[in-house]
Amino acid sequence: MKQLKYYTSILLLVFFLNIPQMDAQKVTVTAVPANDFLNTIGVNTSIGSRGENPTETLNAIGYTGFRWIRSGVPDGTGTRINHLRWLHEDYGIRFSYLLGTNNNIQGVIDGARELIDKVSPDAFLAFEGSNEPNNWGIFYNGEYGGGKYNDAHPGPHSWKPLAKYHRDFYAAVKADPIVGTAGYNYPVWSASDIGACWENVGMQFLTIPENAVGVDPEFPAGTTFADFACVHNYFSGISAYSNNQTWRSAALTGNNGIKSNFGDTWNKHYSGYTDEQLADLPRVTTETGTTITGGGTGVTEQYQGLTYLSCYLAQFKQGFSYTSMYLLRDRVDEGGNQTFGFYVGDSKYTPRLAAHYMHNMTTVLNDRTSIQNPGTLTYGFTGTVKDYLHDLLLQKNDGTLMLVVWGEKFARYAQPDDVTLEFDQTFDKINVYNPAQYDADDPEIGTRPIAVYTHVNAIPLALLNHPFILEINPKETGINAVNVEKTSFSSVYSEEHTLYLKSTTDLKKVELFDLAGKKVFQPENPKERYAGFKLGTLAKGSYIVRVTSVQNQVETHKIII
Known about the structure:
Elements: H1 2-13, E1 27-30, E2 32-33, H2 34-39, E3 41-44, H3 54-64, E4 68-71, H4 79-91, E5 94-98, H5 105-118, E6 124-128, E7 138-140, E8 143-145, H6 160-175, E9 188-189, E10 229-231, H7 245-250, H8 258-262, H9 275-279, E11 283-285, H10 301-317, E12 320-325, H11 353-364, E13 376-383, E14 389-395, E15 401-407, E16 417-433, E17 451-463, E18 467-472, E19 490-495, E20 498-503, E21 507-514, E22 519-521, E23 530-534, E24 542-549, E25 554-560
Helix pairs in contact: 3-4, 10-11
């Protein structure tokens, strides 16, 4: 952290300098709604299984500011759907559901319909095809397809059952009256690792075109598998500590990226889309990230945090509609995937720097409504301008422009380059933030400006390996807004004669009163932050729930059972 603080100090030395106008190649850029960018930021998590605790998962999601979760289908017991409800109601989280390995097409559709019915139509985001079917095979209509299905059927198996599975999955989704074209018309994302296919079944296309070359005739032109191309373009597949690491991974030609899966498949080099077609191909990433390897030449916690910020920015700038990092919290039920997480795999969900950096960036950029008519900004750069300098112009719903400028100069021992950002006009005020900061004694340091400029037309930046966020002529009410305004520590609702309770703190007692003030129910030892209490023979009607925390905070809620 010393290096970051040192270069922050350099920036502060020029705090009140009036930078003269210089000859920069300026361009006029139309802003993108900040809310649109934030909505693309996702993460993989099991929420309440595989060793995860739903309370801590909820807290972690709220802190980091993620907007969607790559998830499994609810278990049908009601417990998991309640967890999804809390996440959606508290933080607006949306969920994508993954197609499994064993004839569960209708199960995935039914899971989406349950989420729509019991939570909200807005809570569901998309369907996703098979997860890396070259590694994890499927069983469909009596046939094994793809990689290893189990020890008894290690494969490799034909890709024809995979193609049939995804063809039928797409058709079933689109035909469903709720999730399909006659209903909410949710998108279908393709299977991942399509480039591994060892038979040309046409899955390198979303819809097989008339001019497809060499595709098995069992899958004719017009066969549709998906609406979006899905990849697992791990930027860790590019050597660590190389410049533009996440930028190159997000490019069409990136590691296990769009071209090697949907243009020229990396295993057998089957022909797919042309480069021109790939440029406009709808795309998502449902896994990317890096482990912390430590050691003298390994990936450090700080490097992980920096690359996670850069990855979300690079993916969005290069056309990805959604990006989900692997992983929210380290997995504790499997080997080989430790230290990917924003959080350590302990009971406390100890945050890494990546979690703090994400909190800072999503807090500074926070917005919950997309501006309808984004404005423009004319600017350019002078100084040591290299190809690892990137920028993204965002705009909040209140009109405030947020210009993100970041470097991907990750090579070892790299030094910052002095760059001047120049505008075609003078602004009354510009706040500059560096979200890649954390100090345990001052945990919100990364959400406050490192410099405030007044009446300026140029800003100096020491560009290295983290974002600067420039808030231009900010609306004072919007500065440092938190992700979600929350004053309550508890929430309750009832369903099927059961009182469901969620709390962000430990509880002393929970009491249920009728409208005359008579206590009619009090569970013993309500210490669970997530809990469901059966209400037995209690008559239907309106009641008051009083919740008391161990700190003697008291909240009341009105419910109908």
